[in-house]
Amino acid sequence: MSLAEILNGPPEDAAPAILGRYVRANGVTLRITETEAYAGTAGDPASHAYRRRTVRNASMFEGPGTLYVYFSYGMHWCVNITCGPVDVAAAVLLRAGRVVDGLEEARRGRTVKDRDLARGPARLTRTLGIDREADGTNLLDGKGPLILVDGPREPVGTIRRGPRTGVSQGADTPWRFWIDGDETVSPYRRSPRAPAIRNDALRE
DNA sequence: ATCATGATCTGC
DNA sequence: CAGATCATGATC
């Protein structure tokens, strides 16, 4: 399936389809190992675009392949790839990946284990050298700083799914996807503000 | 287990 | 216009 087809679809289909694919930015190449889907105003209370279009979330309402880069917890940047048609604010959050090329560049002076370089959405974004400047750029037009490699995907093994990390609303929607057994996948943390775990919630 | 740190949103 | 919230990571 082509990238354009994937990004034209709903986020819960695009998120697992992006696993195992390669992203490249600023001389660093990553193999994506963990993603999360967020629907826009279509009934997903965990989405930044749940209520309405704002200055911050405007990129989520653009066409498929648009980057939505947001600032979180006063210090971190995180990257989403918008999917679905214009005005449908759905997106896929890139949560973790493995550095496969540009290891020296990826380090950026940090002394962490290789597997931790892009383990978690903020570290992934920093490792790729992405920040606010990339917000609103499109990865399909080849002009922005981030490239998602198109073409057929190599086999990824078992894909697993479970609830999304750290969200207080919609905490049981199983829209987090990861490659089973990969050591670069980030640890799951339920939001302390989320309601108690429902007995019908999906197990990981 | 707790803190760091600031943009954004919401309710007053 | 102020206070709560936050799709987290590093360090204690």
Automatic annotation (TrEMBL):
NCBIfam families noted in UniProt: 3mg (TIGR00567), PRK00802.1-3 (NF002003)
Species assigned in the record: Cryptosporangium arvum DSM 44712
Top-level class of the enzyme under EC nomenclature: hydrolase
One GO biological process term: base-excision repair
InterPro entries reported for this sequence: Formyl_transferase-like_C_sf (IPR011034), MPG (IPR003180), MPG_sf (IPR036995)
Keywords, ordered alphabetically: DNA damage, DNA repair, Hydrolase
Official protein name in the record: Putative 3-methyladenine DNA glycosylase
Family, per entry: Belongs to the DNA glycosylase MPG family.
SUPFAM superfamilies named among the record's database cross-references: FMT C-terminal domain-like (SSF50486)
MF terms in GO: alkylbase DNA N-glycosylase activity; DNA binding
Enzyme nomenclature, EC number: 3.2.2.-
Pfam families: Pur_DNA_glyco
